[in-house]
């Protein structure tokens, strides 16, 4: 009997959140991106991005910092250690699923 296929993290698996986490994972550990820049890269509305960031923040995957740049409020977003680890585990699970699929096709 073979092992069951790996589980995919439901917090990351939603398409929009996967795009957010994958984008943030390209930043060096400890680096941050401004909310408007992330919104521009992902081409998401502010409301949609906010909802997904809240879900990721609630899971402990992203760090949100509210600050000011001069007199202008700024929101900075970073992938936290837990989020980085969750994304690594997620990508490993996807690779394992693809490997299972490849193995079945070769039979």
TrEMBL record:
UniProt xrefs under Pfam families: HTH_34
Domain named Winged helix DNA-binding: residues: 22-97
Signal peptide: none
GO molecular function: DNA binding
Transmembrane segments: none
Keyword DNA-binding: yes
Keyword terms: DNA-binding
UniProt superkingdom: Bacteria
Keyword Zinc: no
Protein name: DNA-binding MarR family transcriptional regulator
């Amino acid at each position: 009997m073979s092992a069951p296929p790996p589980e995919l993290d439901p917090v990351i698996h939603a398409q929009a959140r996967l795009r957010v986490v994958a984008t943030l994972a390209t930043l060096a550990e400890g680096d941050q991106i401004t909310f408007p820049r992330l919104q521009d890269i992902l081409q998401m509305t502010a409301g949609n991005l906010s909802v997904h960031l809240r879900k990721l923040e609630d899971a402990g995957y992203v760090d949100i910092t509210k600050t000011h740049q001069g007199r202008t409020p700024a929101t900075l977003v970073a992938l936290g250690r837990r989020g980085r680890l969750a994304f690594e585990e997620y990508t490993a699970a996807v690779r394992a699923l693809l490997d299972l699929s490849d193995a079945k096709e070769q039979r």
